[in-house]
Amino acid sequence: MSELPEPTGEHPRSPLRSVAVVGTGLIGTSVALALTAQGVTTYLLDQDPAVARTAEALGAGIAGRPDRPVDLAVLAVPPSRIVEALAQQQAAGLAHSFTDVASVKLPPQRAAVAAGCDLGRYVGGHPMAGRERSGPLAATADLFHGRTWVLTPSVRTGPRTLHLATELIRLCGAELVTMSADLHDRTVALTSHTPHVLASLMAGRLTRPEAGQLRLSGQGLRDVTRVALGDPQLWTDILRSNAGAVASELREVADDLAVAVAALEWLDDPDPAQQRRGAAELHTILASGVAGRSRLPELAGAAASGGQPPPSAPFRPARGPARARP
Amino acid sequence: MSELPEPTGEHPRSPLRSVAVVGTGLIGTSVALALTAQGVTTYLLDQDPAVARTAEALGAGIAGRPDRPVDLAVLAVPPSRIVEALAQQQAAGLAHSFTDVASVKLPPQRAAVAAGCDLGRYVGGHPMAGRERSGPLAATADLFHGRTWVLTPSVRTGPRTLHLATELIRLCGAELVTMSADLHDRTVALTSHTPHVLASLMAGRLTRPEAGQLRLSGQGLRDVTRVALGDPQLWTDILRSNAGAVASELREVADDLAVAVAALEWLDDPDPAQQRRGAAELHTILASGVAGRSRLPELAGAAASGGQPPPSAPFRPARGPARARP
What's a Pfam family this protein contains (chains A, B) (predicted)? Predict the structure, then answer.
């Protein structure tokens, strides 16, 4: 599977020789499994030492703190705890450089500034991978294979930190995308948080009908609502951290929804002219949906065959490389 | 696979000995394949005789009209053409009894009354199965296996017609659900048409961002928007035929969406009391989504293993068997 030469132990080719993973849940343990498989010495830390030992038992690395600073620490803790962990572990000298895996990037970057963290040794990260299950037992070494992994360097991020985080992504088999923290957060509001809320609203309406009526549901309804099974507390935290951008997206969805309702009301009107107007409007909405959905690239690993990995060149938005001032 | 004894040809156990399928697209040809496999003599009619011959070449039956009336005709034509086909084929004496497979049931029932059709020999039907692909080449004999198939008898539907349609469903391996045409249409507005419009609205928003931003999309977005790939013309027709019920559902979704937007705006407020209020409101929405999604039964055939077929007893709404007056 790997494109890398076998690691030699004494003379690894990678500049990333040692990593500490803080938080050995699904994502942290999957990172650790991938790195250990590539010959990187990986330490496993968790606020619950038993969870870190579980990850160790799975072959993810060594449970416990390293004796001296590692090259890179990966903070795989919940979004609300990242800056606390960053400040604490920078003060304790856990690693030369730090990155995280939170699904929002601007709030931790801002909070890190406010907390007096060393921003030169931190770069925000967000691997676009996950599973329905959580915890170390759900972790797999290939979780990130072919998936997008975003880095959101600030103007203060140092080159060595960016280099080490880039190497982390390469060793995990993921594809690097670089953008500003602000653009990242507006983008995931569109691609992740808004669909989650819509799926939850749709799924919430299924609490009302009789059970027999629900037998009139097919694969389509199941697909549309699948993500609504996500943990409400975790998703409240995620949406809280990006609330402004998600609210903005959803207000626009509400505008579009009002147009769709009007189109359907025209279709339900006895006047043929109104019906034609409604049909044209609805067709436009549906055709726009086809066009938008067709833009999504094939997701690596989503199918046993036929899946195309995304192109390997890092994405840079047209307005130029990230220069957001934290 | 089949629970039926081998058909003997001369003494079949089923009261359904001959069927005419009108419209040999995906659904019609799949019905014909299933019936032919069960030993039912099946005739294949299509406005394009070449399409009927394609179905014949696939082993679905005999292309062309029967010499004398068959037991049951299955009208597998687009929703807008059902009543025309019903009136025409009843006048031509194609079959003793008639059913259809359209995804809405009240409009054809009403139009059949207006067109002077024999309602005693007609029962509306809707198999809950389909594929992304269309046409006879996409057809399979097991398309309906374990799936729900709704019948919507009116007060005028005769017992022999209902019996023959029930037998059709059994021979196709599907599970019968009986309800009024009105309840059917309100139910599919909820379980099929509303999720389709929401998916299209979400997918339509993907026409705007840069291609690189779309690399920040995962399986969740793909699932939520998959049905939006459906043919806009077909779906305009489907939604037109149930426009009032769908508009009503979507107006309620719009109300729920406004609550979600308010919750996110509170979460984005600097006031901690507002934030707590927003978090509580959002958690309620997300938890309701989990509860609703969890009510959906496993879909037969959706997974290679672990799929549970729905219970076999026909569903009757609490308010009693269908007695809708057409």
Answer: PDH_N
